[in-house]
């Protein structure tokens, strides 16, 4: 993790109830891409590390015989349990409250390990080495995230765009200009040298895939508020006694932009990086 920041258990405290409602989905077609690239046949085992409320693991459940989600936040685990039950896959799901650094935790070996926008919060070197040991021969580690380099046009959308810059400015007025993260701050952001970390751990054969987005999404005012409170940098507990004031100002801003309470934005594309445990997976 960043040299000037240390993980603590308040990082996503209080965000779980907002996460499932507020975060944008991964691009349609993600499961199909992974099924083809990883040659999945409905058997095998998936471990989703930093699983949050189970979004990724539950979405991929049909590709595996068993899914295991690991997350240090109890609220996230509770939401994942609910998500699996609602999707009818609870019978093949197991949820473990633990940090990635606590693995292998007797969980056995896996066909695939996924990290859905979570790897940057971990002590990545030791976690990568541990994960390679938890993968079966031919197994793969998969990093999945929104494609950060694309520009998503708002032209032709039926409702006003979510005012992201104005929302960020409002968060900054309440929490300060430096990004908050748990009890600390991230003045230089999270690290991004993932390729070097995984190569040092013995992974090889990197493959990159982009699942295209671009679909028009309708967002309600409540969903936009939930998205804000789902972020580590604007988690509810960070506002302390000023939370009610912040939420009132946020709702006022959103009403000014869209009196109807409806917003539009484009579905982000999803970027997928596949790393193989060994060459037999290629």
How do the strands and helices of this protein lay out in sequence?
Elements: H1 16-22, H2 30-38, E1 45-49, H3 55-59, E2 66-71, H4 74-87, E3 93-97, E4 110-116, H5 124-134, E5 135-146, H6 164-175, E6 180-181, E7 184-185, H7 194-200, E8 204-211, E9 216-220, H8 221-229, H9 243-257, E10 262-266, E11 270-276
Helix pairs in contact: 1-8, 5-7, 6-9
Major beta-sheet overview: 7 strands, mixed
Helical/strand content category = alpha/beta
- What are the secondary-structure elements, in order, as H or E? HHEHEHEEHEHEEHEEHHEE
What is the terminal separation in angstroms? 30 Å
Number of helices: 9
* Helix content range: 25-40%
Name the overall outline: globular
> In percent, how much strand structure appears in the residues?
15-25%
Number-wise, the strands total 11
Main-sheet strand order equals: 3-2-1-4-5-11-8
Oligomeric organization of the protein chains: single chain
Low-confidence stretches: none
Radius of gyration: 19 Å
Mean pLDDT: 94
Describe this protein's structure.
The longest helix is centred in the C-terminal third of the chain and has 15 residues. The protein contains nine helices and eleven strands. The strands form three sheets. A seven-stranded mixed sheet has the order 3-2-1-4-5-11-8, with helices on both faces. It is globular, with a radius of gyration of 19 Å. Helices cover 32% and strands 23% of the residues. The chain has 282 residues and is α/β, with parallel strands linked by helices. Helix 1 crosses helix 8.
């Amino acid at each position: 993790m960043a040299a000037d920041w240390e993980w603590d258990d308040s990082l996503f405290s209080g965000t779980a109830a907002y996460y499932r409602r507020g975060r944008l989905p991964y691009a349609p077609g993600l499961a199909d891409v992974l099924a083809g690239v990883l040659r999945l046949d409905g058997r095998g085992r998936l471990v989703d590390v930093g699983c949050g409320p189970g979004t990724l693991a539950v979405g991929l459940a049909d590709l595996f015989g068993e899914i295991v989600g690991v997350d240090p936040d109890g609220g996230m685990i509770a939401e994942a349990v609910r998500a699996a039950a609602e999707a009818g896959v609870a019978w093949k799901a197991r949820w473990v409250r633990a940090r990635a650094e606590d693995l292998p935790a007797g969980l056995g070996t896996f066909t695939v390990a996924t990290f859905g926008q979570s790897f940057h919060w971990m002590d990545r070197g030791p976690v990568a080495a541990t994960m390679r040991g938890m993968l079966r021969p031919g197994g793969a580690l998969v990093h999945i995230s929104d494609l950060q380099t694309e520009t998503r046009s708002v032209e032709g959308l039926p409702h006003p765009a979510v005012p992201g810059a104005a929302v960020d400015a409002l968060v900054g007025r309440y929490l300060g200009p430096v990004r908050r993260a748990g009890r600390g701050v991230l003045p230089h952001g999270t690290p991004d040298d993932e390729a070097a970390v995984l190569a040092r751990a013995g992974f090889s054969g990197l493959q990159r895939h982009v699942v295209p987005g671009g679909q028009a999404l309708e967002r309600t005012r409540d969903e936009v508020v939930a998205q804000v409170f789902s972020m580590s940098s604007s988690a509810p507990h960070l506002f302390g006694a000023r939370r009610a004031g912040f939420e009132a100002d946020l709702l006022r801003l959103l009403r000014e932009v869209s009196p109807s309470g409806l917003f539009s934005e484009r579905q982000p594309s999803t970027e997928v990086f596949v790393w193989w445990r060994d060459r037999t997976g290629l």
